[in-house]
Amino acid sequence: MSDRSPLVRGMRDLYAEELASIRIVESVFRDTLESYGYELIRLPTMERTALFSRGIGESTDAVSKEMFTLDDETESLSLRPEGTASCVRAVIDANLYRGNQPKLWYVGSMFRHERPQLGRYREFFQVGAEAFGFNGPDVDTELIRIVQDVWERLDVTNEITLEINSLGNTASRLRHRDALVDYFEGCRDDLDEDSQRRLEINPLRILDSKNERTQEIVERAPNMSDYLDDESRRHFDEFQERLARLGIHATVNHRLVRGLDYYTHGVFEWNTARLGAQKQVGGGGRYDGLCELLGGAPCPAAGFAIGVDRVALLRKEIGLKTPASTPDVYVLALSDEEEEYALQVASQLRETSSFGVRVHQGGGKAKARMRAADRSGASIALIIGAQEAADNQVSIKWLRINREQVTVPVTDLPTTLLTSN
Ligand code: HAM
Q: Which of 280, 287, 308, 309 maximizes ligand 1 atoms within 8 Å of its Cβ, making it the mutation to test the pocket?
């Protein structure tokens, strides 16, 4: 009989290499986004359910099937399935976009009640960026450029392809919507149940259906590209020209509609062939109507979000290793008498270098202390015996390379370690 409480399905404990590779992806995004002048925003993980159903769309999978919702007596709250709706709410709440054009980025957990498998979790991590107040497509291409820079820094450029499409402005979308309703009404009985429901709420969502029979019908559905008005067409043409000028290769996919309702004009998705069914590593686009829809003043906006877990998995898949973060240096006194001196050595080294320094604790015989140093994963052991303590010295033992142990004055330690690494 066990009292252990198992991990909740779709949730993960992250540590060692897996966490290290997630942190690498996040830190490259952070550095790159900040180098483009994007500012970090921290958003809550829980919002009113209405924010998501209104902002993301009642008929999307993310809202209608995948939300973790908690109803208390007064209101319905949900864990965020994505960051854009919250970011827009925050911008409206604090009036950040009045007389300003904020460029914001965020990182954190998102929650979707999906069937878990490799690369698909119920709690997963996204890095996202949102730019407010620009009509584009200059900022749209900047967003893509940022992600392209990140792919390069993470060595995954050759594994990722970019698809784009235009969903047009409101007028174009309405005309396309009418055409879709006409078309799907003609074969309503052949559609799956979900799609029949979506026909009433948002027929565009039917294009996203995973049902095989519906997919066949979708094949012949009217294409958005035939309904773009001049303004929408110009926007999309310029978007493509700008991407081409940056040397960014993008394939136009007229069937790309994204899974969330707020998009207008240019939308994009990054895919990889390395992760089976979870091929989408990121997506985004323009959402000019969302600020107003959520009760703010009209404000054009565009952004993206990347699935950090999937990018980390992709790097692993192509053999890019990220060692877990272990201490660089393990300081061990050979007996309890030298412990005080060992603590001083460790403090001094932390102050004068950026090494991660761990001190042996828990006592034990000299041999056991050495074994602990090895197990810690550190690359260097600083050994302190009675002689070293008496002479203000330390002995350096390299644990992972074949190199002779040396004894140096403690003042020479940082330089010796730096030049030897
Ligand atoms: P999204 O396409 O729904 O867009 O999600 C972005 C990325 O999150 C996906 O491409 C995927 O890599 C990752 N992702 C989604 N669900 C899961 C899951 N269950 N497990 C692991 N990874 C997952 C958005 O969320 C929009 N907010 C993007 C955006 C920002 N558009 C404009 N601004």
A: 280
